[in-house]
Design brief:
globular, 8 strands, Met_Sox_Rdtase_MsrA_sf, 30% helix, six-stranded mixed β-sheet, Met_Sox_Rdtase_MsrA_dom, binds S-oxymethionine, two-stranded antiparallel sheet, alpha+beta
Length: 166
């Protein structure tokens, strides 16, 4: 059965690339888009201004197994970005670059909170994780040119804060 996971961790170009690279060969489909905001027809230009309050995000559809499942997706999300910088990721600044987990069920909420507590304890002692953990709302796919952007544009901008921390 396919499940959905939704995360925001800064500029969505590099976020999608990082998940695609790490879970290569698994049953995973990703798209980038906008969620967590108020406007009913967000587009890149509007979201860039911050006025819609949407986050640049990734939506992952996957069939859980021992290699890909919600706990390891949440852990990977924490490994590939800095969850301690409020409303910014690397040089990208604005609420659209906030760190967030948008859960789709009570079970996902529980796991997200558990993993967050473990990562806080293990990797960020004394430095609060500011990641928002909130219920998933409406999702808007980003424009086609943003999908798999770094495959289409291998020399395109990749946020330098997107790398594996452990
Ligand atoms: N700093 C990058 C961010 C792109 S990302 C899709 C730029 O301004 O192009 O927000």
């Amino acid at each position: 059965m396919t499940e959905t996971a939704t995360f925001a961790a800064g500029c969505f170009w590099g976020v999608e690339k990082a998940f695609q690279r790490f879970y290569k060969g698994e049953n995973i489909k990703t798209s980038v888009g906008y969620t967590g905001g108020a406007d009913s027809s967000p587009d890149y230009k509007k979201v860039c201004t911050g006025s819609t309050k949407h986050a640049e995000a990734i939506q992952i559809h996957y069939t859980p197994n021992d290699k890909i499942n919600y706990p390891n997706l949440v852990e990977f999300f924490y490994r590939m970005h800095d969850p301690t910088t409020l409303n910014s990721q690397g040089p990208d600044v604005g609420t659209q670059y906030r760190s967030a987990i948008f859960y789709h069920s009570a079970e996902q909420e529980k796991i997200a909170k558990q993993v967050t507590a473990e990562v806080q304890e293990k990797h960020y002692k004394g430095k609060p994780i500011v990641t928002e953990i909130i219920a998933a709302g409406e999702w808007f796919d980003a424009e086609e040119y943003h999908q798999k952007y770094l495959d289409k544009n291998p020399t395109g901008y990749e946020c330098p804060s997107h790398f594996l921390r452990w």
